[in-house]
Amino acid sequence: MNRKKKVNQILKKRMKQANAKIHKSNKPRYVSKADRAKMEQEEALAAQNDTVATAEVDSESKADAE
């Protein structure tokens, strides 16, 4: 009886592992707190650069209009 039980346990374990590989998790990848802060800082810098660039374009277009 123990031999049968052991074989069944092994087979169930292998089936479980195979199913786990097939069904991947839909969870998003973990991003550490430091990485989130770094990304936020880069976004803020990019937004600041965008506003400066648009301000320069606006001032140039006003100068061309005059």
Distance between the termini: 97 Å
Number of strands: 0
Low-confidence segments: none
Strand percent estimate = under 5%
Strand count, sense and barrel status of the largest sheet are: none
What's the total helix number?
2
Structure class = mainly alpha
Morphology call = rod-shaped
Order of helices and strands: HH
Radius of gyration, taken over Cα atoms and rounded to an integer in Å: 29 Å
Binned, the helix content reads over 70%
| Mean pLDDT across all amino acids | 85
Protein name: DUF2986 domain-containing protein
Biased composition (Basic and acidic residues): 32-41
Pfam family, one: DUF2986
Region (Disordered): 15-66
What are the key terms here?
DUF2986, 2 helices, rod-shaped, 66 residues, mainly alpha, DUF2986 domain-containing protein
Could you characterize the architecture of this molecule?
With 66 residues, this protein is mainly alpha-helical. It has a domain at 34-66. It is 82% helix and 0% strand. It has two helices and no strands. The protein has helices at residues 2-22, 33-65. It is rod-shaped and about 90 Å long. It comes from Photobacterium sanguinicancri. Residues 15-66 are annotated as: Disordered. This is DUF2986 domain-containing protein. Residues 15-27 have a biased composition (Basic residues).
Question: Helices, strands, pairings?
Answer:
Elements: H1 2-22, H2 33-65
